[in-house]
Write a structure and sequence with these properties.
46% of the residues lie in helices and 16% in strands. The chain has 487 residues and is α/β, with parallel strands linked by helices. The chain folds into three domains: 8-176, Rossmann fold (3-Layer(aba) Sandwich); 180-371, no CATH class; 372-485, Trna Endonuclease, Chain: A, domain 1, CATH 3.40.1350. A five-stranded parallel β-sheet has the order 2-3-4-1-5, sandwiched between helices. Helix 9 packs across helix 16 (323-332). The model has no long low-confidence stretch (mean pLDDT 94).
């Protein structure tokens, strides 16, 4: 466990599963490159148990999958002896069951089926075989901890968690592995020996997110911007085609998923579900298919849904929450052909001081804050029941009244609302007279349009802190700093 960075909650859950005197059927899912295999393998291989791992082969034929299974079976249970390749998954699990019967009654057994969706080839029969052996043999064997894993979150949910056949309600634990948060990212970068402070870590996070495999490729002798240039813009980089590869490996009809993500990315303040319906009709993604695809994307961690404060009638809104995807669509995709032809060099370092760059920073930092709501609540001394959401008012067409938007607010359980302004600046943010007037107008519109009688507080979430002024002392009741986000 000492080799596992972060994942404290997941490790505690796995420890409880391992120690329980009962069988377990665990479904682990999360986007590609997130560290699912690493977590399970490193956690259980350090335990005093029999550990069997079968990893699916991407686009591998049934015969190849079964050959790999026989190889793993011989390695773990028969001292590397050659095992006859089973004809199908029923035979494969029968052989596994025979091997399990030779293990001591007091010895715990971990069966790890990694990338199970890849084993589910056409007419493979693996789900029905798994149903039979779990229900007939393994569920009553207290030694067995069955761990299933897959990057295709939609597959894991459809075929295991929401299975309507023999595996209905058989999954005892579901574990969705998300990207590292800022605290875990800082721990991991320190583990890798990459030297950077909190603001610099946020800069890395803005481009790569908390995806361990991306972070692992940072070169210690290069600056952050040099690393970004080499990893994401160089046609020779292994990540140059990552956007397409991620979606192709996770989803059938990957084209439709990429279209949805690209559309959502164009609406920085979020896009209403009804608008998505209209804009995706031409792509054939409307109706139930769009609903399922949005669920798939959210389960995989690419997008997030929310209902703006006091706008329940409008229904769900969606925003892109994956940092790498937004970086790709914002900076790489428009230039990809020219980059591939080596017609552009040192592009990233040429834009890092432009208005477009700072606009991008502001949006992504806001997204990062939404991923760290627990840390912001703690800094503001709010309880977990305080509901977080954005709010905006858009006047009717041809109206002369001003519209406004609130980045984040917390509707509290103590008859109060904390309104937050999120700012990403290089220097401590200064509230001057003009900005203070802008805030007062924003609060006035909010009170008028929501008709709230609750007490209002104003907080600033600032990447660089705040420079005290007469106006900040008058307006700002709390400040959330970058250090707070790393707690």
């Amino acid at each position: 466990m000492s080799d596992i960075i972060g994942r404290a909650k997941e490790q505690a859950e796995l420890e409880a599963i391992y120690n329980a005197n009962e069988s377990a059927f665990v479904a682990v899912y999360g986007r590609r490159r997130i560290g699912k295999t690493y977590l399970i393998k490193n956690f259980f291989q350090g335990k005093n148990c029999v550990y069997f791992q079968m990893t699916g082969i991407y686009k591998g034929a049934l015969k190849k999958q079964l050959e790999r299974f026989a190889k793993e079976l011989g390695t773990v249970f028969y001292q590397d002896a050659s095992i006859k390749t089973p004809a199908n998954w029923l035979e494969a699990f029968e052989e596994l069951n025979k091997a399990l019967s030779t293990i001591a009654k007091n010895k715990k057994i971990v069966l790890f089926f990694d990338e199970l969706p890849w084993m589910h080839t056409r007419k493979s029969g693996i789900i029905s075989a798994l149903e039979y052996f779990w229900n007939r043999h393994w569920v009553d064997d207290k030694r067995i901890k069955l761990i299933t894993c897959g990057s295709a979150a939609s597959w894991i949910i459809k075929y295991l968690i929401k299975n309507r056949g023999g595996l209905h309600n058989r999954v005892t634990h579901r574990m969705r592995l998300l990207p590292f948060n800022l605290y875990e990212t800082a721990l991991y970068l320190k583990h890798l020996g990459y030297r950077c402070d909190y603001p610099q870590t946020i800069k890395i996070y803005m481009a790569l997110g908390g995806v361990p495999f991306y972070l692992k490729n940072l070169k210690k002798n290069l600056s952050i911007d040099q690393n970004i240039e080499n990893l994401l813009f160089a046609a020779s980089s292994p990540f140059f085609d990552e956007f397409d590869e991620v979606f192709s490996s996770l989803f059938e009809n990957a084209k439709h998923y990429k279209e949805i993500v690209t559309l959502i990315a164009k609406h920085k303040d979020g896009i209403e579900r009804s608008v998505l319906d209209e804009k995706t009709k031409s792509a054939g993604s409307q109706g139930g298919r769009l609903t399922q695809r949005l669920e798939d994307l959210e389960n995989a961690g690419f997008i997030s849904s929310y209902i703006p404060f006091e706008h329940k009638k409008l229904g769900l809104f969606y925003r892109l929450s994956d940092e790498y995807c937004y970086f790709y669509l914002q900076w790489i995709e428009p230039l990809k052909l020219r980059l591939k032809q080596n017609k552009i060099s040192n592009y990233w370092r040429s834009v890092i001081n432009t208005p477009a760059y700072f606009n991008w920073c502001g949006y992504v930092f806001e997204n990062i804050c939404y991923k760290h709501l627990p840390q912001i609540r703690t800094a503001l001394q709010l309880d977990a029941a305080s509901l977080a959401s954005p709010w905006r008012y858009t006047p009717r067409k041809n109206s002369k009244e001003p519209g406004t938007q609130i980045d984040l607010l917390f509707d509290r359980s103590d008859n109060a609302i904390t309104i937050c302004e999120i700012k990403y600046t290089a220097e401590p943010f200064s509230v001057d007279k003009a900005y203070a007037e802008k805030l007062r107008q924003r609060l006035s519109i909010f009170k008028e349009k929501t008709r709230t009688k609750k007490q209002l507080f104003f907080a600033l979430v600032s990447a660089a802190g705040i420079k005290p002024t007469l106006y900040s002392e008058d307006m700002v009741t709390s400040v959330v700093t970058v250090e707070d986000l790393f707690q």
